[in-house]
Model the fold of this input.
Amino acid sequence: MFSKTSKTTQTGTNKHGNTAEKKGGLSVINADLRVTGDLVSESDVQVDGSVNGDIRTRNLTIGQHGEVRGEIVADKIRICGAVIGQVRARDVSLSDTARMMGDILHESLSIEPGAHIEGHCRRIESLADEGGLTVIQAGQVVAANVKKEHK
Done:
């Protein structure tokens, strides 16, 4: 009559041969929610509300009415709303409704016509295994082996 449904977790092997649990799912900051503080997630995050703090996640989507004030570090970011702060990601995409005020450090960057940007866009050569990166500006290396900050 009553039954428990079990949630299955995916497991994988990391580069050291250890079995690690992979996080999944999507965390959503709804339009009526305001968050003050840093967000850290190993899964995907969607911001339709307001975040006043830094975000570190795997994939981040900022909805058309979403707003983030702080530094964002992720593998992939899709910006449809407003960001005030620095963005560091391998893949950054700005929609036609995006309002970006800050620098973007990226490996891949796509900008739709109509997006508003105030800041610098700098290409990252590659993210090293230990979290370091190389910043390329005007065709020259300006920083190498830059580490991600852990607070």
Q: What stands out?
A: Residues 5-21 have pLDDT under 50 and may be disordered. The two ends are 48 Å apart (CA to CA). The longest strand covers residues 55-62. The CA atoms of residues 41 and 104 lie 21 Å apart.
